[in-house]
Amino acid sequence: MSHAQVDVSEIHWLMDMFQTVDVGLVVLNCDYRIQVWNGFMENHSGLTPRQVRDRYLFDLFSEIDEDWLRRKCDPVLLLKNRAFTIWEQRPYIFKFRNYRPITGSAEYMYQNSTIFPLTDTRGKVTHLCFIIYDVTDVAVSRLELESMNGRLRQLTKIDFLTGLFNRGHWEENLLQEFKRLQRYNHQSTLLMCDIDHFKRINDTYGHAAGDEVIRAVADAVRSNLRATDIAGRYGGEEYAILLVDTNIEQAACLAERLRQSVEQLKINYNSQQLGATISVGLAQHDKNMTEHRQWIEAADKGLYQSKAAGRNKVTCHRFDEVTG
């Protein structure tokens, strides 16, 4: 076999590999006009090499951020350095639809890419070569895992029945606020409340009815919250609300509004209409408190006083009354 025949044979299988390899291969000249376009790019874009030859890249693919890509390629052209893009920073260069059945949840193909310089015999950079990798499987798996972990983290914070923070997470927030107030001269107030005669509701209508009442009161709590307030389910039928940067007079107005909202509830259960009321206790943070549990105890004192006074009331309690 002659050298010419060997060269032709090598070129043939090289071209065959170039067309069938499962990565995108694109070569641009320094004016960003397409010179080479392999089978992967043709299959995913629907454009043949003849259709794209000498076309300006950014005219054909308007989704590409031209300023960003030129900044990415400048070091490749000027310094002969390689450049890389990863899907975490930018999902794709070429917006191709995703056709893989395993990763069908992804609308578009996630891509990593390598960009490197091609030089002539004198070492001058004349072209840019892009290698495009389809990393949709990896990206979707990572995103699903992160989403699942995010949901799990959220579930550890939320009370299932009410959708409010659970006691553990709510108390963490209270502790953080307590530490902040110990350092700075701010005013925040703690509100504790529970549903009056809740055992009677359970005994009369059943625990499912009790759950409906708990949910309805939680909705009333949520509807009366401001953006900065932090509400949680503290116990079975007991709720706690941290009113940040709120003095006790302001908090008393919010508490009274909440009390009235609950009093007006009409809770439908098994063709019956149930009602509910709450007793509320308030305590403002005091510099003499040494731990956050003293704040909870002070608000609880107000709650107990509301119950002792006949329930369905709001009572403000001062810390010095706890220690005095």
Automatic annotation (TrEMBL):
UniProt-listed CDD domains: GGDEF, PAS
Enzyme class: transferase
Reactions catalysed, as given in the entry: 2 GTP = 3',3'-c-di-GMP + 2 diphosphate
GO biological process: cell adhesion involved in single-species biofilm formation; negative regulation of bacterial-type flagellum-dependent cell motility
EC number: 2.7.7.65
Domain GGDEF, first and last residues per copy: 186-319
InterPro entries per record: Diguanylate_Cyclase, GGDEF_dom, Nucleotide_cyclase, PAS, PAS-like_dom_sf, PAS_4, Rev_trsase/Diguanyl_cyclase
GO cellular component: plasma membrane
Cofactor(s), names only, from the UniProt record: Mg(2+)
Annotated GO MF terms: diguanylate cyclase activity
Protein name: diguanylate cyclase
Species name: Rheinheimera lutimaris
